[in-house]
Amino acid sequence: MKLARMLYNIVFSLFLIGCGGGGGGSAPAPTTFTFRIVNNSNLIVTEAFLSPSSAPDWGPDQLSSDLQLGSARDIINVPCGTYDYLATNSPGTVKWGPTYGIGMPCGGIFTWTLLP
Length: 116
What we know:
Elements: H1 2-18, E1 32-39, E2 47-52, E3 72-79, E4 82-90, E5 93-103, E6 109-114
Parallel strand pairs: 1-6
Antiparallel strand pairs: 1-3, 2-4, 4-5
């Protein structure tokens, strides 16, 4: 019985060390970032697109509702990578951008400020 208990403790200790539970381990590197759009323009933003540069099209509008003057919106948990982005004040009319091939900061916030 004692031998089985000792073997259990050894295996459990090795499991903790392998999982980073042995103390002194560092947190895993971040794999996402936040894309923040700040509307400092004189127009309401009706659409915003954020797409991996490797994607063949823009994909869906990222705004759940219009972005009013002087307000900001965060798109969270975006996988790290290189992105293209654009925004409009009327569906189908590009007002800001497009901007292509921007590397985004893992674990950080990328702020895009829209100006008049």
